[in-house]
């Protein structure tokens, strides 16, 4: 009788023994899994014949992923780039013949029309979705933001006529109660939320150094 000897590279041996496609999620993400789950008003325990809570959550998650805010607005005839107020030149105002839309330019900020009456979560609840069980670090929450494509000019003059605004994938880092604004960071080409050194941005971007 001989004793069983464990191969030195047992992990690599198991990796080679792959039969069929894997069900493991191989997509790297800086967002917690629960941040993609929709809020549903269904009991955790339901009667036989009723839709289980987990199935309803997954159905809505897949449904919401098919929605695109830019396409939804465009279907209503709304140009997202025209939603942001710009500087206007009174001496070069378009005439009625040149423009079918109202002659007067857009000058009211979007926040005036903001209505949180239909929000299913408070800002604090949205931000808390970045906390994973057993972790003290808060990750970003996925979102979409209407931002300028030119970051430099966008910071210098957000109302410049040269800017183009688009809905961009972002990571929501924090929320300011006084200004009622969210702090967001654009995702990179891989959909990750990283700082200039390529490190994940945690806890709203606040580090031990400040």
Secondary-structure map with pairings?
Blueprint: H1 10-16, H2 53-65, H3 69-75, H4 123-128, E1 141-148, H5 151-156, E2 165-176, E3 181-186
Antiparallel strand pairs: 1-2, 2-3
Percent strand equals 5-15%
Question: How many beta-strand runs?
Answer: 3
What is the terminal separation in angstroms?
63 Å
Q: Which strand order do you get reading across the main beta sheet?
A: 1-2-3
Overall body shape: extended
Low-confidence stretches: none
Rg, Cα atoms, Å: 24 Å
Account of the protein in words:
- The protein is an alpha+beta fold.
- The protein is 19% helix and 12% strand.
- The protein is built from 5 helices and 3 strands.
- A 3-stranded antiparallel β-sheet has the order 1-2-3.
- A hairpin with a 4-residue loop joins strand 2 and strand 3.
- It is extended and about 95 Å long.
- The protein starts with 9 loop residues before the first helix and ends in a 24-residue tail after the last strand.
- The mean pLDDT is 86.
Keywords for this entry:
single chain, 210 residues, alpha+beta, three-stranded antiparallel beta sheet, 5 helices, 3 strands, 19% helix
Short description:
The protein has helices at residues 10-16, 53-65, 69-75, 123-128, 151-156; strands at 141-148, 165-176, 181-186.
